[in-house]
Amino acid sequence: MNSNEVHFDGKIAQKAIIVRDGAILLMRDPREKDKIWELPGGRLNVEEDPRVGLAREIFEELGVHINVHEVVHMEQFFQHSEGRNAFVIIYKATLIDSEAELHLDDREVSEVRFVPFAEVTDYKLFPEYERTLRHHFANLPK
């Protein structure tokens, strides 16, 4: 082991890219002061399977059930609001009922929008989510 190594110590989150009718679901957290938009999802609990945790978080925040698919991005970053390291796993996901009405938990979600990808750059996003969305949509089959 290299004596200069520092092991990761921080929170782990899982987020979902949910697309409906060509638009991606973005949300805002009412606790976030800068009115930044983000992908839905949340923290992984101890001893929780990440896919199960993501489905749980989406149900808690939005009141809908999802199918969790492949991982599309993973990234380590420093979360300034909490002053700690974070690791995010971003999955592609689909609504089980594509016409389901969203029921927002107003403690965690102040607003949601399905945004066409061409308009995503008009929204202030956390950098890790902006990079993920650019990469994901650039690599979709035409």
Automatic annotation (TrEMBL):
Keyword GTP-binding set for record: no
Keyword Hydrolase: yes
Cofactor(s) needed for function: Mg(2+)
InterPro entries: NUDIX_hydrolase-like_dom_sf (IPR015797), NUDIX_hydrolase_CS (IPR020084), NUDIX_hydrolase_dom (IPR000086)
Pfam families recorded: NUDIX
GO molecular function, one term: hydrolase activity
Domain Nudix hydrolase: 9-139
Annotated keywords: Hydrolase
PROSITE patterns: NUDIX, NUDIX_BOX
Protein name: Nudix hydrolase domain-containing protein
Species whose genome carries this gene: Candidatus Kaiserbacteria bacterium RIFOXYD1_FULL_42_15
